[in-house]
Amino acid sequence: MNLLQWKLLPLLTLLASVFLVFYLKDPSENECSLLPHKHFWITSKRIVTPQGVISGAVEINGGRIVSIVKEEERHGKIMGNHVVDYADAVVMPGLVDVHVHLDDPGRSEWEGFPSGTKAAAAGGVTTLVDMPLNNFPSTTSEETLKLKIKAAEGRIYVDVGFWGGLVPENAFNASALENLLKAGALGLKSFMCPSGINDFPMTNITHIKEGLSVLAKYKRPLLVHSEIEQSSPSPVQREGSQDDPRSYSTYLTTRPPSWEEAAVRELLKVTNNTRPGGPAEGAHIHVAHLSDSGSTLELIKEAKRSGDSVSVETCTHYLAFSEEDIKDGDTRFKCAPPIRDKANKEKLWDALMEGHIDMLSSDHSPTVPDLKLPDSGDFLKAWGGISSLQFDLSATWSHAKKRGVTMEQLALWWSERPAKLAGLELKGAIAIGKHADIVAWAPDEEYDVNDIPVYLKHPSISAYMGMKLSGKVLATFVRGQLVYEEKHAPAACGTPILATVTD
Ligand SMILES: *[C@@H]1O[C@H](CO)[C@@H](O)[C@H](O)[C@H]1NC(C)=O
Ligand SMILES: *[C@@H]1O[C@H](CO)[C@@H](O)[C@H](O)[C@H]1NC(C)=O
Ligand SMILES: *[C@@H]1O[C@H](CO)[C@@H](O)[C@H](O)[C@H]1NC(C)=O
Ligand SMILES: [Zn+2]
Question: Where is each Amidohydrolase-related domain found (predicted)?
């Protein structure tokens, strides 16, 4: 080597290092957020915290909330740092939607992780928990959960957790259920009536009791689709009758409130197992998507009074729509249990306001437009499931605001309590130490759903198309990353959230 080459060596080394830094660095890292800062402040006159709504600033560093200061204490503290000011807009914990079907893997043509989580981000949802069915294969074992986690990696724009399925096949096999829970399922879901998906059969009360005893050990919940078929006129019996399958009331009479009531009455045989000192202490039963605000709700109230570990959710569509609104042939509104009449809707609102209903979820359950049978408009044969994920916040608010609902209540129903149900200790509130999962939104801004970009795979089947809604999402942060602000961050940097076993 001659002298010249020796002199060039340090320079070449330097160039090589620069090359390595630029080309071998994870390319997604600076594409995860529309904001380059890791340490910054969010300011607003309306920050929703568990202690109330404050005017002030939230300090975010490395994805966590590290301090919260009130306006009067603020001066000097945030000088010289990067500040994102939302002025009069509301700054709230991001929504945690615990009931979502993204149909991935296996039926991603119905929705899929990328479109579903983009829609979630645009709607202020920072965490969602995916249901174990409608994807294929159903998520009922460690192996199928691993397939789902793999499908989610690098394709989700918000954080996503997973429920496992409790089905007859695994209900009596404690080690199979334990493997599913150890692999990270946040809890289990089961059906007391046919689910509509052949590889997700329904469970009876014996299966549920078995499932609870395993869940108790892991302190995780069982979510139950609470309807049991009763000998009311079934679609088959009705064939040849006068009833028009295009008429919503025809569908409604096929699934009366007595189905929900029968299911919860049956569930009450085992909810007592969850009491302190009971054989399934530590487990919890969550009644999914309550529609009947009558006897079914009374039974749930009774269980709560007895000290059973029970909670209940209702969905936005039961609060936004009623039988009277649904036009013949408009199968976008078909779901189970069905949307009932206006009086029922008003009672659901009362129960929510009075604290008898604990939380909200979307039960976003889309399909391909063809299966909604838009041409025939046959309510009896169309796919049952409402597409709504992008509108969780604004659809709730559009109906809540005239009822005097506060921002604290919204945060409780949509963030704090759902996070608690799913065991997500770092989610659900603007509080020190939590993940910086935040939505900034303008409650007074109205928009026409037809005028905004809808990121769902099949916007045409969403129940909210053509409607005017209040409450526009301005920005969504997931673990301090600005994932949405009029557009999405280039890379999908959401994380699969897995439950961890603590001994
Ligand atoms: C129970 O599940 C385990 C793990 O999935 C499996 O290896 C075993 O064969 C199952 N037992 C029965 C009786 O099905
Ligand atoms: C539930 O089904 C199982 C078979 O999977 C059966 O052994 C059990 O007796 C059933 N329980 C009830 C209450 O019917
Ligand atoms: C729960 O209630 C049922 C009756 O609904 C009763 O048979 C059972 O023994 C009770 N179990 C416990 C653990 O209290
Ligand atoms: Zn569902």
Answer: 90-483
Selection from 313, 316, 260 nearest residue 287 by Cα? 313
- The Cα 405–Cα 407 span in angstroms is 7
Max CA separation in the chain (angstroms): 100
Going by C-alpha positions, the residue among 121, 102, 130 that lies closest to residue 490 is: 121
For the Cβ of 271 lying below 6 angstroms from any atom of ligand 3, the answer is: no
Helix (H) or strand (E) holding 99: strand 95-100
Q: Tell me, using a 6 A CB cutoff, whether residue 272 lines ligand 3.
A: yes
CB-CB contact of 476 with 129 (8 Å)? no
Q: Which of 146, 170, 175 to mutate to test the pocket of ligand 1 (most atoms within 8 A of CB)?
A: 175
- Nearest CA, atom 10, ligand 2: 206
Global confidence as pTM: 0.93
Contacts 24+ apart (CB under 8 A), 467-470: 468/398, 469/391, 469/394, 469/395, 469/397, 469/398, 470/394, 470/397, 470/398, 470/401, 470/443, 470/444, 470/445, 470/446
Name the β-bridge partners of 496: 160
204 lines ligand 2 (CB under 6 A): yes
Tokens representing 280?
């399934």
**For residue 167, what are its two tokens?**
């089905």
pLDDT tens digit sequence for 67-115: 999 998 877 777 667 999 999 999 999 999 999 999 999 999 999 999 9
- Written out in words, the top-level CATH class of the domain with range 94-427 is alpha beta
Assess contact for 71 and 55: CB atoms under 8 A: yes
Probe residue for ligand 2, chosen from 167, 190, 204 as the CB with the greatest number of ligand atoms within 8 Å? 204
Using an 8 Å Cβ cutoff, are 491 and 474 in contact? no
